[in-house]
Design goal:
203 residues, mainly beta
């Protein structure tokens, strides 16, 4: 089995070897015309052409509501003020605008959760939505309870969202309708009210 040996100036070397078994025919891998950006990995297109791509999981983040519980006004859709981060690998989440704006084009998994409290012991309707660019709803789930037990209610939604890698962003919004006309609140803890996501496949 032949190999190409690349020797270091200090004496040791690194080798690139041929396959352990004889291939069915002569094969060729074509190197890309660049060295790739930081964080990229080598991929092959099925025809022997190598290219650098961002791997699945790139740009992962989790942002959450921190500090005081956020009021959810009766019969109103409210942007959740995710003002803190558990992690944000590329710094793409903004804790002032509550937007995740990934800078690599592709499809991303986005997940959101809100825990609602301060609810009267009455029937409620609730919804949790993920909005793209402030106007396009890409995920929404509704829930309803005839009688709220222990003054808590949790709701979760998720979606796969296509981003252009420059200006597209997402935010999460919660809606609450209480039969008694009162308000509720989103609980401000990292484990209860949060949004997270990551790159699924780069464009």
């Amino acid at each position: 089995m032949s190999s190409i040996k690349l020797k270091h100036a200090s004496g040791n070397s690194m080798s690139i070897g041929s396959p352990a078994t004889n291939p069915a025919s002569d094969l060729e891998l074509k190197l890309p015309a660049n060295i790739g950006a930081a964080g990229k990995v080598l991929s092959v297109d099925g025809s022997g052409n190598l290219k650098f791509i961002y791997p699945s999981g790139y740009g992962y983040f989790q942002a959450y509501l921190n500090g005081s519980n956020q009021t959810l006004t009766h019969n109103t859709q409210t942007i959740i003020t995710l003002n803190a981060e558990t992690f944000d690998s590329q710094g793409w989440f903004n804790t002032s605008t509550y937007k995740y704006t990934p800078q690599v084009a592709g499809k991303y998994v986005i997940y959101a959760q809100v825990d609602i409290t301060d609810i009267d012991n009455t029937a409620i309707q609730s919804a949790l939505s993920i909005y793209k660019n402030g106007s396009t709803m890409v995920a929404e789930v509704y829930g309803g309870i005839d009688d709220v037990a222990y003054n808590f209610h949790s709701i979760i939604t998720s979606s796969i969202v296509d981003f252009n890698g420059s200006s597209d962003y997402v935010q999460m919004r919660a809606y609450l309708f209480e039969d008694g006309g009162g308000n509720g609140a989103a609980r401000a803890t990292a484990r209860e009210t949060f949004m997270n996501g990551y790159l699924l496949e780069a464009a």
